[in-house]
Design goal:
There is one protein chain. By secondary structure, the protein is α+β, with helices and mostly antiparallel strands. It has 29 helices and 14 strands. Among the domains are: 124 residues, Helix Hairpins (Orthogonal Bundle), CATH 1.10.287.2070; 217 residues, Phosphatidylinositol 3-kinase, Chain A, CATH 1.10.555.10; 182 residues, Alpha-D-Glucose-1,6-Bisphosphate, Chain A, domain 4. α14 packs across α15 and α20 packs across α23. The C terminus is likely disordered. It is a peripheral membrane protein. InterPro entries: Rho_GTPase_activation_prot, RhoGAP_dom, SAM, SAM/pointed_sf, START-like_dom_sf, START_lipid-bd_dom. One of its GO terms (molecular function) is lipid binding. Keywords: GTPase activation, Phosphoprotein.
């Protein structure tokens, strides 16, 4: 019975991870067994292997239900996963946030097949026909209002429509008080003069004012795509780096389903057990303290929290040094360097990670140091959880399936591991491009680097300690004598790394099986683009300005209440860090960082608005595209990433206020569409960015930074574990930019 409970729990865990949480809920609600045929109708877009893997888990739960096996409904959730957004890959199921339950939607076309499939799930909640009629009537009413508004707008023009008292759209509230001088007049003008024009786009506000009650809801802006960008939407959609957090959430579930289907079909370990699952390495070891380490032996997650980059800058500089000068060096990565010089290079990186000079260094010394960096990571770049799966792909799967499997496995890696792997594979691809000069083929490179990247010796020690502690086994490893399994893993690691080097340009694109289910998302983005192009610029900007005014009121209210509704984090030095969950479709937390800065509020506001180059080392370019008034503009800036990761463009509408009595300054910004802007990378989205700068004594201020961004290409887990640290680091760089100025003045 205990074994059956374990199987049931693992099946439910897999269903949630692979995009079928509704069936896990039904099992926990004791509504199993279910009709498998119904499931097939809900997932007709899946291939036969994926359906077979799904059926395998559901049949296990049907068997457990027949045995009256129950599992606990309470699942242990870590701090990083507590904001995991529910996602079902079938569009015939919907999640109700209020009840936190999944319900099956009855088909709108009323086809017999759909009705039968809905009825076959015992007691499943359904959308009643009367409710559907009410919804459709409401939608039709909205359509009529929009049609009337559009006709009126096109016939009468902007000015006539603004003064039309019979407009079908209700106006915004007459007053928006920000409790800071100069804001009341501007907000009042916006609401009375332009409010009626903006009512057609109420749903796009980051903080929408309820038209009947005047209350605020936390609904954030959906970015409008420019006409030029929408023309290239299909090309951008194939890049993983350009996907939103919500989109990546769905893609990862499809990737897990794909990998499971292949492993179920080909992996011997799957045939021995009841199913294949992602291996779990549970180590009950106290987390080490990395305060005395800067580069070597530091986890990738901690490095990205410290530096905002997946790899230490010194390691990237080493790769660039080899790329510029030594790609034609015979035996690069094969010939060993000198130990004393390698040790000196390691010390240079540890002492000053951001300022390492490799000029004049031996290519073999630098290459060996790079190899040692990946070997010294606490866990392999492929992670302890997935490393064995990567090896199984090249041990058991047919060659024509290996690319799809490894592409899916890469999608399941943490974002910092996936980005670091992309940087490394791109560099190694450049090395093997000079094979005629350096004699390093993909296989030769893989033979030299695979043990360091896969941590094969560590895997063997763990395997031997868990599987057998016999004297012969211990003697074999003490003598370094490999057995057949060791040889098989070595060969798989070598072949796998060589294959990934060759295919590195395709590995990080959207898999084919993820494109079709995402067609609706692409269509929605096109519709948004067309809708945005039909709006006039004053309407869009005034709507967003009202939203930003409301968000500033919310920030002032939270500050007055000492941010009591926020969840504090205690692991960041010199900064108070907290976060808040926002219930919308973006799957991104709202983060807050606070610290004191030795400067007056106006100076800090000026530094943020016009001197970003003094505190943002990743800034490539910045310019003001348009000045709307003395306290409002449209700002475009680009931040660089480690090559080959793309740069990120941000186009934001900024507005700020200053209270002349208290000296308090407040700034709010959000992404806005701007035609004609030249993009240098992928267009990221600022959902909300705020700075509250309050005087805290003579030439001292308390600065609170609130931020919520979708940088593209990162999952919800990355925003939960990393983005708060990036916000804190940004605030500290602003603080340190003033300390440098004070030090310079003192010396003078």
């Amino acid at each position: 019975m205990i074994l059956t409970q374990i199987e049931a729990k693992e099946a439910c865990d897999w269903l949630r991870a692979a995009g079928f949480p509704q069936y896990a809920q039904l099992f926990e609600d004791m509504q199993f067994p279910i009709d498998i045929k119904t499931v097939r109708k809900d997932h007709e877009f899946l291939d036969p292997d994926a359906i077979e893997s799904l059926f395998r888990r559901l049949n296990t739960l049907n068997k457990c239900a027949a045995m009256k096996v129950e599992i606990s409904r309470q699942r242990k959730r870590s701090d990083e996963s507590e904001d995991e957004e529910p996602c079902a890959i079938s569009n015939k199921w919907a999640y109700e946030r209020c009840s936190q339950r999944w319900s099956r939607l009855e088909s709108l076309d009323g086809s017999p097949g759909e009705e039968g499939s809905s009825a076959s799930v015992p007691d499943s909640p359904r959308l009643k026909s009367t409710e559907l009629d009410n919804v459709m009537e409401h939608v039709n009413g909205l359509r009529r209002l929009v049609s009337q508004w559009t006709e009126k707008f096109s016939d009468d023009g902007d000015s006539d429509f603004a003064n039309d008292t019979t407009s079908p759209c209700p106006s915004f509230p007459k007053e928006i008080h920000l409790e800071i001088k100069h804001s009341e007049g501007k907000a009042e003008n916006l609401s009375t003069v332009e409010g009626e024009q903006n009512c057609g786009h109420i749903g796009d506000l980051p903080y929408v004012t309820d038209l009947e009650t005047g209350s605020h809801s936390s609904r954030h802006i959906r970015r409008h795509w420019s006409t030029e960008e929408s023309g290239n939407l299909e090309n951008l959609s194939v890049q993983i780096d350009n996907q939103s957090a919500a989109h990546l959430n769905r893609i990862q579930k499809l990737a897990l389903l794909k990998l499971t289907a292949l492993m179920d079909k080909y992996s011997p370990s799957s045939k021995q057990g009841w199913n294949w699952t992602v291996p779990k390495f549970i180590r009950k070891i106290k987390a080490p303290d990395y305060k005395d380490k800067n580069v070597f032996g530091v986890p990738l997650l901690l490095n990205v929290q410290r530096t905002s980059h997946p790899l230490p800058r010194g390691i990237l500089q080493a790769m660039e040094y080899l790329r510029r000068h030594f790609l034609d060096q015979v035996g690069l990565f094969r010939k060993s360097g000198v130990k004393s010089r390698i040790l000196s290079l390691r010390e240079m990186n540890e002492n000053d990670p951001s300022n390492v000079c490799y000029e004049g260094q031996s290519a073999f010394d630098v290459a060996d140091m790079v190899k040692q960096y990946f070997r010294d990571l606490p866990e392999p770049i492929f992670t302890s959880k997935l490393c064995e799966s990567f090896l199984h792909i090249y041990q058991y799967l047919p060659k024509d399936q290996q690319f799809h499997a490894v592409q899916a496995a890469i999608l399941l890696l943490p974002d910092e591991n996936r980005e670091a792997l992309k940087i490394l594979l791109s560099f190694l691809h450049d090395v093997v491009a000079f094979v005629e000069e350096n004699q390093m083929t993909p296989t030769n490179i893989a033979v030299c680097l695979a043990p360091s990247l896969f941590h094969l010796s560590t895997l063997r020690r763990e395997s031997s300690s868990s599987s057998s502690s016999s004297r012969s086994s211990q003697r074999k490893y003490s003598l370094g004598k490999p057995d057949q399994r060791d040889l098989s893993e070595n060969l798989a690691a070598t072949q796998g790394l060589a294959h990934m080097i060759i295919e590195c340009n395709r590995l990080f694109q959207m898999p084919d099986y993820c494109l079709e289910p995402c067609g609706d998302d692409l269509h929605n983005q096109k519709v948004l683009s067309e809708g945005a192009s039909n709006q006039t610029t004053p309407i869009k900007h005034s709507t967003m300005l009202i939203s930003l005014e409301n968000s500033m009121q919310d920030l002032l209210r939270d500050a007055k209440e000492k941010f009591k509704s926020w969840v504090a984090c205690s692991n960041v030095e010199r900064v108070e860090l907290a976060h808040k969950k926002v219930d919308d479709n973006y799957h991104v937390r709202l983060w807050k960082a606070s610290t004191e800065i030795d400067a007056a509020p106006k100076l800090i506001l000026q530094r943020i608005l016009t001197e970003q180059h003094q505190w943002d080392p990743s800034l490539q370019q910045a310019k003001i595209l348009e000045t709307l008034d003395d306290e409002t503009d449209i700002y475009h800036y680009t931040t660089e990433s480690m090559s080959p990761l793309p740069a990120r463009d941000y186009i934001v509408l900024r507005t700020w206020r200053t209270d002349p009595q208290s000296g308090t300054c407040i700034l709010a910004a959000t992404s806005v569409n701007s035609e004609g802007a030249t993009l240098h990378g992928i267009l990221a989205q600022v959902l909300l960015c705020q700075y509250l700068i309050e005087a805290a004594g003579s030439q001292k201020s308390k600065v609170t930074h609130v931020c919520r961004r979708d940088t593209r290409g990162r999952t919800t887990e990355w925003y939960n574990r990393v983005f708060g640290h990036i916000c804190a680091a940004e605030l500290l760089r602003i603080k340190d930019s003033f300390q440098y100025l004070h030090t310079k003045e003192t010396k003078i």
